[in-house]
Design brief:
single chain, alpha/beta, 2 domains, five-stranded mixed beta sheet
Length: about 280
Amino acid sequence: MRLNDRRWWIILGLVMIGSVVGLGGNRWSGKDDFRIGVAGKEGVMMVSVSPSRRMINIVKVDKETEIWFPGGMGWYKSDRMAKILDQEKDMSLFEGVLFYNFGFVADWLVVGEPDDWQEFGFLANRLGWAGWARYRLMADEFLMKEETWGGKELELKLDEVAARDLADDGVLEGGKRLRVYNASGIDGLGRFLAKRLEWGGFVVDLVENSEKKVSRCRVVMNRKTQTGGVLERILRWWGCEQSGDEDMADNDVELYLGEELAEVIKYLSYKRDRE
């Protein structure tokens, strides 16, 4: 970047302002991915920024496409998300919608216009002013890919490209191998959640039923295994208990899913509506 480039001086000036008003320092190193979910009048949108892939992937869900709201709320068109969030006052609902429909684990959420996530105030508050400046200087060199998904082709698109375009690079490179066991006695729960994990970039080696007694969720792995950010968040959502098995390989993870987990997300309502 040349020092006589006008844009550089504008960014430098904003960085100095940010340091004065206290927007934080360097919260983003320029190496880690970050992902943003957006809900607005045009529907749901997912943004994945990946420095290692040098990509900004934006997926808009067609506003007429129905998406599932976990917790027994049922199905609503994508463009209802923002209004429902305004009524419910619960952003965790949006997190659940993104994961259970698309396998997408967002770092931050926005309710507003499609470009609000790019605003200085929003990003600087999350990346820090130095992180924001780093992002602005890098972003013009990234390839931006924007698509709209919806209708009957939605699940096909998810199967084909969700892991490649929307998943966290740390998941893709982490090498975790998941085995998913349905211990709930409810048909299809294991396949349903395993599919979301695959869309999120995880390798699922096995999905089968289990006779083990599990109330909600149990994760079994070698105690040396580090779950990492995205998987750790999912296990926390599901309320998983942890057990150690020193004979397991470092990257192997077993997930046992119980009936209480199915009840929390109201999986039976999803299954019934789709039968």
